[in-house]
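tool_call: predict_structure(chain=1)
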Amino acid sequence: MAGPKLSVGIIGAGLGGLAAAIGIARAGHKVIIFEQASVLAEVGAGIQIPPNAALILKHYGLLSKIESVSVRPNDFVIRSYRNGTVLNRLNVLPYAEERYGVPYLHIHRADYHKIFVTEAKSLGVEMRLGSVVTSIDFNEGLIRVRDKPDSKCDLILGCDGLKSICREALLGHTDPPHLTGDLAYRIIIRAEDMKKHPDLRDLVERPVINYWLGPSGHVVCYLLQGGGLYNIVLICPDNMPEMLNTAKADIQEMRDFFAKWDPRLKLLLGMVQETMKWRLMNSEEMDSWSHPSGKFALLGDACHATLPYLAQGAAQAVEDGAVLGALMSRIEDRSQISDIITIYERLRKDRTTRVVKGSTALRDIFHMVDGERQQERDRQLTEQEPFEGYPNPWADPVFQEWLFGYDAFAEVDKAWKRYKQGTFPGTTGHFKVHL
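tool_result:
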């Protein structure tokens, strides 16, 4: 790289922090990740990789590795909760690749995380595990870690998730996650066990994303790991005690909520012996993600945690990291760091806000109680060609293009040209440094 080699400290080694580390290390900078866990082991179940994220993985040369442990769904299938009647079907394979140049994928979160960790290490990213960050000096660029020396960085990124200490440090007050009123049961069942049941066999013989829409809840199911596992997410109203965010599930309570749903779902839930339930939370929109010093910014769930209903939470964090990495590849002088952060936030904040709000709004569409509005929703899904505002957001021709067609690198190219022309708003004028 022609510009300066900067030191970047990243707090948090989740998918967002790793995506940022990969992008910034590829730009030639020194990256250190501070992670409080003593061992890197991502937990969770299935995760979706839409085209807007797959494009970034392709750019990084990681798509083939990701695909080797992923499943390509053929369709989005939206069903009625009563009996599983198909209300709407949207082709994904081969459509996504033909339209956006990359596939739509399903992957186990642990596999996704492992590939990111391996890539970050191969790029020279230093992983400091067991590093509990106690405070940040935003003006000096200092990260203070319990029982370890301070670390001075040119730029610090807070990527420590929904319960972010970095966000609270930036705000100067506590900022607990926002309760959404929903919870999720997450379950994985072996596909071979499902194939023993004639009524379940068709759910696993051809990869699709199945959605069941019902009163006050919905269900999402898809295959993982070469079709060997069936990932099930059940969404229903939050009834957890105030001080708990995760708990062992009462299996009968779970079955009771979905008792009047598609008989195949009841059969599936009859196979579950135990599982956990998770309270679904998001974050309130912030006025700004960055510190006035220009040496600190937030990324991913730390600043735009979302309900999972658009399947875009991880994808938006990966986009954040790609934008930052692409901007850092263009830096010509240290004086431009604060402008890099300004451009990053302007490129990302409106988009992620729309995703967060869109995910919340989708709950109202998916969770309609039986009645005239639900009947009209179902009629539109069944009879109408997709239109702007369509009840299946992935089929909405306007929203789909905006969501899946996003090219993080092209957005940075356009922004940097404006910056070098002196027309990017909110920057300091340091674009002149090499003119």
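agent: Residues 38 and 130 are 4 Å apart (CA to CA). Proceeding to next step.
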